[in-house]
Amino acid sequence: MKIIKVFAPYSKYSLHDGRIQKMTFEHGNLVFHFDKIFSYDDDGEHTHKAKVIFEQVDVDDMNVLVFDSTLRDVFHGEQIDFDTYQQRYKNSEFEVIDEMTNWGQAMFQGWLRTNDVPVHCIMTLYFGGRMIYDIEDESE
Question: Are 58 and 124 in contact (CB under 8 A)?
């Protein structure tokens, strides 16, 4: 028997190059506050100020890998939890380069920028609900 996995169509929205300026945890939901996210349609590329909400997140299962620099041949860093990330990097931005979401898991790779100095960062979280794009405006 052959089973073919069918993936849903691509989302209209992309977090690539968007910067998470702040994260909040509200009523079991993890909220990423973005400077902008992108959408694509027949008229081209558009930017939007937005929040992305992950429902039913257990932040105890969330981990963040923060490296000492940008990735090259050898790398060093540490794995931290959500609370440590919030304390240490509250004035930093996380620029999403790669985003992967499926089956209640989200993984983001990109640049964690503190005082505009980037280091490589990978953030993984698990969620039991929906992933919601809360679009605040329709800017170009």
Answer: no
Domain spans of the chain, in order of start: 13-135
* C-beta atoms surrounding 37 within 10 Å: 23
Residue 9 is given by DSSP the state: P
Pairing of strands 77-80, 131-135: unpaired
> What is the reported pLDDT for 71?
67
Q: What is the pLDDT of residue 72?
A: 67
**β 13-14/117-126 pair status:** unpaired
Query: Strands, DSSP E only, in the chain?
Result: 13-14, 19-26, 29-41, 44-54, 63-67, 77-80, 93-102, 105-114, 117-126, 131-135
Token pair of 63 as six digits: 């981990």
